[in-house]
Amino acid sequence: MEQLLLYFNEYKEALFIIVLSIFLGIEVISHVPSVLHTPLMSGANAISGVIIIGGIILLGHADISRLSLEMILGILAVLFGTLNVAGGFVVTDRMLDMFKKKRK
């Protein structure tokens, strides 16, 4: 427990920026009009692709002999990034299907 408190004390500025960016992101996304939803989703898919690559690089540098913080963060980055990209493609495909002409 003491190590956790020392970690939080050492990286308090970085943790503050992360928490602040989470609240800012939620506030910005909640006020986006529906017209801009698809272009923003395309941008989010591109960012998630970068996150997947970063997670793979992080896993490549992690020590595989033990479960480390780098290993856990790399696995989570690859998992959540892949889920976001796949979900974005599914939603985009469904939206594009709405604009196709129906066969008679």
* Fraction of helical residues: over 70%
Q: Rough shape?
A: flat
| Helix/strand order | HHHH
Largest sheet: none
Radius of gyration (CA) equals 19 Å
Which regions are unreliable across 5 or more consecutive residues at pLDDT < 50? none
Number of helices: 4
User: How far from one another are the termini?
Assistant: 67 Å
Which structural class best describes the helix and strand composition?
Answer: mainly alpha
Mean pLDDT: 84
Count of structural domains:
2
Total E-strand runs: 0
Q: Tell me the strand percentage band.
A: under 5%
Keywords for this entry:
mainly alpha, 0% strand, flat, 2 domains, 4 helices, 104 residues
Secondary structure blueprint with pairings:
Blueprint: H1 2-10, H2 12-30, H3 37-61, H4 69-98
Helix pairs in contact: 3-4
Describe, in plain words, how this protein is organized in 3D.
The protein has 104 residues and is an all-alpha fold. It has two domains: 1-31; 34-104. 80% of the residues lie in helices and 0% in strands. It has four helices and no strands. The longest helix has 30 residues, at 69-98. The radius of gyration is 19 Å and the shape is flat. The termini are far apart. The model has no long low-confidence stretch (mean pLDDT 84).
